Amino acid sequence: MVDASIPDLLRLVAVPALGWAAIRDVSTRRVPNDLWGPLAFLGLLLLLWDGFVALGQPGAFTPFVVRAAFSLLFVIPLAYGFWYVGGFGGADARAFMVLAVLFPTYPYYQVAGSAFPEVQTTLGVFSLTILTNTVLIGLAYPLVLGLRNAFAGEFSVVMFVGRRVAVDDLPEVHGSLLEDGSGFTRNGLDLDALRMYLRWRGLTLSDLRVDPELRDPDTLPDEPNEPTDGAVVTDGSGDPWGAAAFLDDIDHSAYGTTPAQLREGLDLVADREDVWVTPGVPFLVPLFVGLVVALTFGDVLFYVLDAFGVAA
């Protein structure tokens, strides 16, 4: 039996919704934008509902307004800022913004005589707890990746941000190359852009690897195919591979890919048997875990600080 207010019970719809989004993020790196609008609208309704309730309780309205304002005016711009500088993907930023509206203050649930979340912060802004939980959980990802590589005997300067992948497997892999013709790089070819290029030319990666003549732009199709968005399926001798022709022909950006990046990436995957790839962090996964942990245990940072004798 769960004892909670109606608004707090309705907020729990975010758990299965975000869980589904996390699964989509892992499997396709694509989350429909249509998911966030209804959740944001629900959050606004529940925010007004809680505001009217707090208005009728002595001394409750001012703390509620302060916490709600902090959530809306600090957490939302912070999420936008992370997206703007490239720290978050678009879906990650939208998810944080929606949660800032849905969970401006701490919810309260009583289950079998136990109260959840177990720990609340003094500030009392629940969306900030979700954010800090997500960041702390996300920090574990590079450590797990590094340990995985170490156990596999793959020691490299990029072992905490990438993994070695067989080139033949790249059509089913998310992320971007960590290498180009000069060595390791932070600006390697996005694998979605690689898939777009192959679909545009009507080729498979195997075709590209076995036929060196395909580097000649004269082999470009007269009527190129639709490049799609590069998702994994659940014009002269001065333009090797026809990289510039491809980017000029499509009517949208290939994830910011330049002709030079595309040429270097194609040269690499055409000649190598394996490459280092950074899968990136499917950030909706730690966000989902951070939300579930926040709803049950509360603020992870509190437990960390408490372990070092800092938290009261």
CATH class of the largest domain: Mainly Alpha
Q: List low-pLDDT spans.
A: none
Helix content: 40-55%
Overall 3D shape: elongated
The CATH architecture classification of the largest domain is: Up-down Bundle
Strand content: 5-15%
Mean pLDDT: 89
- Note the quaternary state here: single chain
Describe this structure in words.
This protein is mainly α and 312 residues long. The chain has two domains: 164 residues, Four Helix Bundle (Hemerythrin (Met), subunit A); 117 residues, no CATH class. Helix content is 52%, strand content 7%. It contains 13 helices and eight strands. The strands form three sheets. It has a three-stranded antiparallel beta sheet, with no helix packed on it. Strand 2 and strand 3 form a beta hairpin. Helix 3 runs parallel beside helix 5 and helix 5 runs antiparallel to helix 6. It starts with a strand and ends in a 5-residue tail after the last helix. The model has no long low-confidence stretch (mean pLDDT 89). This is Preflagellin peptidase FlaK. One of its GO terms (cellular component) is plasma membrane. It is a multi-pass membrane protein. One of its GO terms (molecular function) is aspartic-type endopeptidase activity.
Secondary structure layout plus pairing:
Layout: E1 2-3, H1 6-11, H2 14-28, H3 36-55, H4 61-84, H5 90-102, E2 109-111, E3 114-116, H6 126-138, H7 140-151, E4 163-166, E5 176-177, E6 179-180, E7 183-184, H8 191-201, H9 205-210, H10 243-249, H11 259-271, E8 274-278, H12 284-296, H13 300-307
Antiparallel strand pairs: 1-2, 2-3, 4-8, 5-8, 6-7
Organism: Halobacterium jilantaiense
Pfam families: Arc_PepC_II, Peptidase_A24
Transmembrane segments: 35-55, 64-85, 91-109, 121-144, 283-305
